[in-house]
Amino acid sequence: MKIFQVIIGTEILQNRRKDKHFDFLKDLLLQRGYELFASFIIKDDPKLLEDTFKLIKNTENSYLFCYGGIGATPDDFTREVAAKVFSDSQMEYNEEFKNLIDKKFPDEDNTKKYLLAYWPKNSKPIWNNPINGYPGFMVDERYFFMPGFPQMSHPMTEWIVDKYFPKKQQKQRFTLIAYAKESEMLDIMKKIPQNVEFSTLPKLDYTSEISFAGENAKEVFEWFKKELEKNSISYEVLQ
Prior knowledge:
Elements: E1 2-8, H1 10-13, H2 22-31, E2 36-42, H3 46-57, E3 62-67, H4 78-86, E4 91-93, H5 95-104, E5 118-120, E6 124-126, E7 136-139, E8 143-146, H6 150-164, E9 173-178, H7 186-189, E10 197-202, E11 208-213, H8 217-230, E12 235-238
Parallel strand pairs: 1-2, 1-3, 3-8
Antiparallel strand pairs: 4-5, 6-7, 7-8, 9-11, 9-12, 10-11
Helix pairs in contact: 2-6, 3-4
């Protein structure tokens, strides 16, 4: 499972608004044993949006949490571009959402408001919006599109995670500080199995924080410590 996040907002990139989505989703997923594969903050640009969505769609076993751009003003492109990428440009009105709009504004001409309910074909609503009750939408129960307002989208996100991401055991991680330059350990690092998640964070004092996670991580960690000892490299295990 490769989970993507797309945050749409020119105003964030121009520092007119602070992002509140990245940390929220990252932490929520980690609590349930998942992690983000990638996160993008992009402009309200149709071509950029299309290219980003295509990248995600073409990634095997991909999931998407998308925030922003689902309104009805001319600078909101998400609904149309999502339809182009995920439903062959086919769109339709969600009648349940239209009925909700009519109930909220019974004495008005709601034709323009109905644009909010014009979604990629066969989309399903994402409810749990405590502010105005308006839903986001999902495609194939994998690609989730929500408003940019955290007060609306974060409760929706929690509902999605509860429904589609069952809690699993959190990934065990094993970490040490090696008192050596990365270059002194390259030959050892090249022998690390590819099925183990491995990362090294060099520090300015010429030490390195080295971390292992995933399948067989504990066994590889123990092997790595022995290899350091064979090469007279001291280390400290972090708890």
